[in-house]
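Could you show me some protein's one-letter sequence and the numbers that encode its backbone in two labelled lines?

___
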Amino acid sequence: MIEVKNVSKSYGKKVALDDVSFTLPRGQIVGIFGENGAGKTTLMKSILGLQPYKGTILLDGEPIDRHNIAKLSFATSEHSFFANLTARDHEGFYAEHFANFSHQRFNALMDFFELPYSKPIRSFSMGQKNQFEVIMALSQGADYILMDEPFAGNDVFNREDFYKVLLGILREDETVLLSTHLIEEVSGFIGRAILIRGGKIAGDITTDELDEQGLNLMDYIKQTYDYRGDRVSRALDSLSGEG
């Protein structure tokens, strides 16, 4: 379980996270949603120990350090691979450093995405680089897999098929925390949604609870964020007199 307790983070005067608390048990697929700048990436980087923060984050009851960090993996569109190495080189490097690295999963996902094994990663397209990030995060052997906008640059068919593959390969005790703006696409794939607004937790609900309330994920997010459905018509009305 990941326990986030009263976590806050500021960049100068800008508050990125404000007293955030939640738990993330094993075996969940959780979507984290919010506007740009809401604090999603800051939260993930705090969990990974990539930046200082106030508060407490525990991994299976212990602080996160070099002894247990291998339980976490991260797929980010910022890219964390070695650009001059090939995919096969990465496989060997990860297998050497992560005892639970899965060659079977690595090869299956490489073939699924039809990525070349022998070319340096710098020669990949942006979409291919993001696919490779996901492959390495899923193959590392981590118990908790964090993904920050991992599908950027991928077409809708690749994304749709990947959701199905991911559901098929995850072990029951593996946990995924997924940050994405593709809300409607992932609504049938996740089991829980956490909403962040202005650095605070604005909502936390399971898909079963949404079903009981007769809501879909987009409806819930719009309600939570006080979305004004007339904003487009008001903008167009204000522009109608121009020209």
Observations:
- The mean pLDDT is 88.
- Residues 74 and 146 are 5 Å apart (CA to CA).
